[in-house]
Amino acid sequence: MRRIILLITLTWTLAATAQEQTRRQVLIETTMGDIRIELYDETPLHRDNFIRLAEAGFYDGLLFHRVIYGFMIQAGDPSTRHEGEKGPEVELNKIPAEIRYPQLFHKRGVLAAAREGDSVNPERKSSASQFYIVYGKRYDDAMLDRMKESLDRNTNGEVKLTPEVREAYKTYGGTPHLDGQYTVFGEVIEGLDIVKAIDWVDTDPSDRPLTDVRIIQARVVK
Length: 222
Hints:
single chain; 222 residues; alpha+beta; 5 helices
């Protein structure tokens, strides 16, 4: 019996490892360093759209146009190219929400899709191209209890901070107030220090970095 249990455990481990190895990855080369992203298979619409845009060269030359210290860095707006520069002609359509909370949540380093607010976008469809990478901060239990009250108001009590999610926010950090409301579809596996460096740049009152931070190239590497 022990041998059977060990064999089953080994099979599950190998299967999980194989799944991780098949995940697609995108390397985002920026003017401040490289960020390597792994895309989740659990959000296939967002995964495939991000790969499509990267392969088309859509993100090349775009700014991180919105940066909020202790929160996130945002890019993907085609209007932020160099003046007079024309990007590739690609179809841009909003993406149906693929919110997989609590499996996927706003821990530090995740990639998520920006979107319009609930008042004009009640289905919480994602932007066709804009994304953000979470940096956030670490929380203690008292802070998470206050955050729970905010989440209850914003989600009519539908989003609960599970013990596992709470522990992740205490250990690694993130932005729990967005949970269950935006699609998380990947995470940084290399270059979190670059995300931090961008998150810490000086910005103007509109949250735009005073010194441009651009994506040099985003390319699929796996």
